[in-house]
Amino acid sequence: PTPPYLRWAESLHSLLDDQDGINLFRTFLKQEDCADLLDFWFACSGFRKLEPNNSNEEKRLKLAKAIYKKYILDNNGIVSRQIKPATKSFIKDCVMKQQIDPAMFDQAQTEIQAMMEENTYPVFLKSDIYLEYT
Amino acid sequence: IDSEDDLLQECISSAMPKKK
């Protein structure tokens, strides 16, 4: 069978589908001061998994606000800088009008994912941290 | 009451793959 660290080089998704891969990628991103990219990506996935129902309305609103505040509101933040202005205002509108939809962070997540696929992921595969691990 | 950070952490962890 293919060792996990070789599968990590196949695609970003195969890396993010493995706990050890995520940990190593996160250590690398932390060195580069951009671990927020990964945390945001997972926060978006986690948010989407919360099914809307009467018992978690408050939690979903609180969480949407927390994600917005931590990653998007500060225009100098690493995540915020990679998200298109139109996407940011869409999310801001959803939060302000309390229109909390499971898919409200999907576009932002796609933009961050594209950035990781083009930039941080290929750099990670050439990094000392990955090569030493293999 | 959950703090915002706890809520975020819980959300991030919920999306991570389980250890195989």
In short:
With 134 residues, chain A is mainly alpha-helical. Chain A contains nine helices and no strands. In chain A, helix 3 packs across helix 4 (35-49).
Gap between N and C termini of chain A: 15 Å
Radius of gyration of chain B: 10 Å
Structural class of chain A: mainly alpha
Strand fraction of chain A equals: under 5%
Number of strands of chain A: 0
N-to-C SSE series of chain B? Answer: H
Q: How many beta-strand elements of chain B?
A: 0
Q: How would the global form of chain B be characterised? A: rod-shaped
Shape field of chain A: globular
Largest sheet of chain A: none
What's the rounded overall pLDDT mean of chain B?
87
Sketch the major β-sheet of chain B: none
Tell me the span between the first and last alpha carbons of chain B.
32 Å
Q: How many H/I helical runs of chain B?
A: 1
Proportion of helical residues of chain A: over 70%
Structural write-up:
The complex is a heterodimer of chains A (134) and B (20). Chain A is mainly α and 134 residues long. Chain A is built from nine helices and no strands. Chain B is mainly α. In chain B, 60% of the residues lie in helices and 0% in strands. Chain B is built from one helix and no strands. Chain B has one helix spanning 4-15. Chain B starts with a helix and ends in a 5-residue tail after the last helix. The A-B interface holds A 16-19, 22, 39, 42-47, 49-50, 59, 62-63, 65-67, 69-70 and B 2, 4-5, 7-8, 10-20.
Topology:
The complex is a heterodimer of chains A (134) and B (20).
Chain A: H1 4-7, H2 12-16, H3 19-31, H4 35-49, H5 57-72, H6 78-82, H7 85-96, H8 106-125, H9 128-133
Helix pairs in contact in A: 3-4, 4-5, 4-8, 5-7
Chain B: H1 4-15
Jot down its keywords:
heterodimer; A: 134 residues; mainly alpha; B: 20 residues
